[in-house]
TrEMBL record:
Keywords: Membrane, Transmembrane, Transmembrane helix. It comes from Flavobacterium frigidarium. The keyword Membrane applies. This is DoxX family protein. The keyword Membrane applies. The chain crosses the membrane at residues 51-74, 81-102, 108-126.
């Protein structure tokens, strides 16, 4: 296994994003209600449903690409899907970071950085 570290990070990202997407799909109203309060004093206050849908779509794309990337790495050492999964993961995390900073939730923003570091490592390794 020459790609063990890359596969482990892609699995980590896939689990993170697919679980988050699952939560948004099956608990949409709960997420929406919480986020409306979270962004009540920001420019996003009237756009929370659209922002939540955008994040959901990006999370699902990221997670699916990471899973396909793992399979591709294991089957033929291909890196294309894993690379795109890592890039989409970074884009998704930057969007989440922007939202947390906008809401002045600095602890939440700090947590996102913990996910961002391995995502950038995956981009670097799979490039």
């Amino acid at each position: 296994m020459n790609n063990a570290a890359s596969i482990l990070i892609l699995v980590f990202l896939a689990i993170s994003f697919l679980q988050s997407g699952y939560d948004k799909i099956f608990y949409w109203k709960d997420n929406l209600d919480w986020l409306k309060g979270h962004f009540a004093n920001t420019r996003l206050k009237n756009h929370v449903p659209l922002a939540l849908m955008n994040v959901l779509v990006l999370e699902m794309i990221s997670g699916i690409l990471c899973i396909v990337g793992c399979i591709e790495l294991m089957v033929n050492n291909g890196r294309l899907f894993g690379y795109y999964g890592a890039v989409f993961s970074c884009i998704t995390l930057i969007m989440l970071l922007f939202g947390q900073r906008l809401a002045k939730d600095y602890d939440g923003a700090r947590t996102i950085v913990i996910y961002f570091i391995p995502a950038v490592m995956a981009v670097y390794w799979l490039n």
